[in-house]
Write a structure and sequence with these properties.
mainly beta; about 10% helix
Length: about 140
């Protein structure tokens, strides 16, 4: 009787430790992330608010958006501008703690767009933005969900 109990215990332990656990992050899609004024934001929702405005919101309703003249349908690099964008251009905007900043179109500011399975990813680094008083930079990757 004691031998059967010990064998049952050993088999149960072997089965328990040999089972593969589900990784809760395995099927999770990648999320957007951006940094502004030394604060890193993790997007909880990234989508086109209009057909040309890709926006990402964090859990505190801070937002970053990239505004295109038309919805991107292929990979490419867009020049960041302060004016209404034309083909090959875009505007980057930030809304944080009720402050709003918009791109100023500094030379060399670009957004790289990748389109995969109809979803847009926009990546940018050190884009100059201003609220009319101060100039700051924003970097990030927005991944349409």
């Amino acid at each position: 009787m004691k031998t059967i109990s010990v064998l049952t215990l050993i088999l149960t332990a072997a089965l328990f430790f040999s089972c593969k656990k589900n990784d809760p992050t395995a099927n999770k899609p990648p999320t957007s992330q951006w940094s502004f004024d030394s604060t890193v934001h993790n997007g909880v929702s990234t989508y086109f608010i209009t057909s040309v405005d890709l926006i990402s919101l964090d859990s505190f309703s801070n937002a970053v958006d990239v505004y295109f003249p038309v919805t991107p349908t292929s990979n490419g690099t867009y020049t960041v501008t302060a004016n209404p964008p034309r083909n090959g251009q875009c505007i980057v905007g930030i809304s944080e703690n009720s402050d709003s900043y918009t791109s100023i179109g500094s030379p060399g500011d670009t957004v790289t767009v990748t389109v995969s399975a109809g979803k847009v990813t926009a990546a940018f680094s050190n884009i100059s933005v201003s609220d009319g008083y101060a100039t700051k930079t924003v970097s990030g990757t927005l991944i349409q969900q």
